[in-house]
Design brief:
Elements lengths: L3 H11 L7 H34 L23 H18 L6 E4 L6 H15 L4 E5 H10 L4 H16 L2 E5 L16 H13 L12 E6 L3 H7 L2 H7 L7 E3 L9
Parallel strand pairs: 1-4, 1-5, 2-3, 3-4
Helix pairs in contact: 3-4, 6-7, 7-9
């Protein structure tokens, strides 16, 4: 009498099917597990990115986008300088793919700091699995102010702070403009400074090897010393890097806004 297994094998053959060896079957199962794992990881990354997009604060209230391809040095009178700055930015992104550190972009208004920062974020989203978040310093100041008497605004601010602490790459754009114009000695409010300090401290976490895990990119029309007059020295030390390799100076470029 034939066993059930033999009957099943004959039925598969009669239908034109192919019998798999145990090794082949295990390989196929492993491949199915791998594909399922990759799909789950991709879905989780997409979900996280949607959360950080939701909690981003844009100057206009709507997401802005840019890319390295669209940042054109020929729009500047000094094409050579603009080309150098673009190369510095792309080289910096390549380093950030493998390590985490703070970045400072400084220059006058309209010279392309924010556009270049958006290009860096675009590259992260296209070529890495890192998460990104954009926060306008001016919009954040308004959110902190509305937190006083509005429970809904308070809940939103708490959500924004949590995301700013967790995201891999955080941009704080136009830092200092929420306090005053360049050269001003006016200081930021204590509540705003405390908010930034909580974020700065939380983002300085390191892994088991003592390496930074999060990157914070600051853009500002103000110099580091001017920002030091607006904010606590400890905060500036944590947020605004002074390492030359991590600073991009847009000094010498002209305002190209229409």
């Amino acid at each position: 009498m034939q066993s059930v297994s033999d009957v099943a094998k004959e039925w598969i053959k009669s239908k034109g099917g192919t019998l798999l060896s145990e090794e082949e079957l295990n390989k196929r199962l492993a491949e199915i597990d791998r594909q399922a794992s990759e799909k789950a990881a991709a879905d989780y990354l997409e979900l996280k990115r949607k959360v950080y997009q939701r909690d981003s604060l844009w100057p206009s209230g709507r997401k802005a986008a840019f890319s390295f391809e669209r940042w054109l040095p020929e729009r500047q009178p000094d094409v050579s300088l603009a080309t150098t700055i673009k190369k510095q930015s792309t080289d910096l992104f390549k380093r950030l793919r493998h390590e985490a550190f703070n970045v400072f972009l400084h220059g006058s208004a309209g010279v392309g700091k924010t556009a270049m920062t958006l290009a860096i974020l675009d590259a992260f989203e296209r070529f890495t699995n890192k998460t990104t978040m954009f926060v306008s310093a001016v919009a954040l100041r308004e959110a902190v102010m509305y937190d006083f008497n509005d429970n809904q605004a308070r809940a939103k601010l708490e959500r924004i702070q949590k995301s700013m602490l967790e995201v891999d790459v955080l941009v704080i754009d136009d830092f200092g403009s929420e306090v005053g114009m360049a050269g001003s000695v006016r200081q930021a409010t204590e509540r705003l400074q405390q908010f930034y300090m909580r974020v700065a401290d939380g983002r300085y976490e390191v892994d088991e090897n003592g390496r930074r895990t999060k990157c914070t990119i600051i853009t500002s029309n103000n110099t580091r010393s001017e920002l030091g007059a607006m904010y606590n020295d400890k905060l500036i030390s944590r947020l605004v890097t002074k390492k030359p390799d991590n600073v991009i100076l847009f000094v010498g470029l002209e305002d190209v806004r229409d």
